[in-house]
Amino acid sequence: MTREELRSKLAEFKLETRGVKDVLKKRLKNYYKKQKLMQKEAINGDSCYDYICVVDFEATCEEGNPPEFVHEIIEFPIVLLNTRTLEIEDTFQQYVKPEINPKLSNFCISLTGITQDIVDKADTFPQVLQNVIEWMRQRELGTKYSYSMLTDGSWDMSKFLNIQCRISRIKYPSFAKKWINIRKSYGNFYKVPRNQTKLTIMLEKLGMNYDGRPHSGLDDSKNIARIAIRMLQDGCELRVNERMHAGQLMTVSSAAPLEGAPAPQMPRYRN
Q1: How high is the pLDDT of residue 39?
Q2: Among 77, 79, 76, which residue's Cα sits nearest to residue 98?
Q3: What are the residue numbers of the active site?
Q4: Which residue in 2, 66, 82, 157 is deepest, having the highest Cβ count within 10 Å?
Q5: Distance CA 160, CA 158 (A)
Q6: Backbone φ and ψ of 148, nearest 5°
């Protein structure tokens, strides 16, 4: 089928018609698959989790990112995606005061839009993490509702959060030990190579434009959530595919038992 024929067929079923040909083909194929399953009454339409928490940290940086430079988290955003309604239900955003390099580079300020004044007035990471945990608890994540963390790539958890916890002398939080790497999910679902899974490319292939300011942690998280919504609409089963174990990044098999993240708790301080 041509792209126009695919779009016409999708419109007939009142489905989204934006996206490149391969995406449209996958969308139509999944629609037919879902219809078949529904006829057999074997589908309940449920997602793996009630909620998905999208996180995209911003961290201190220098031009060229010299290898010895220590990245510290300076923005902690969360976008709470309701997988039933497929809507962003809530957001959290707090800035963080860096300790090792308290003065931001001009490159970092220009890239993230986060000013020196903003981080000077911010709390240190342990306090911000405590606020995050309180926010998640108020929304009954891990108690009443199942949830998973979701990131754009591996670095947010395996690098930035891992390093930050060492700097702040706290243990790595248990709720962030497993997550959905949306780049992997996107690549596997739409059958595209890894170099086609950058945030702006994923949006473009799905027929969407970036909304907001690039490298604002909150805006990046909202755009990642938009991709997740479209993937869920297209029939993708977003599930945990990466985890931290003994300080190392590991892959989680799709055959592994499905379990949501635990109720968030403040990690203990390291000795």
Answers
A1: 61
A2: 76
A3: 58, 215
A4: 157
A5: 6
A6: -140, 150
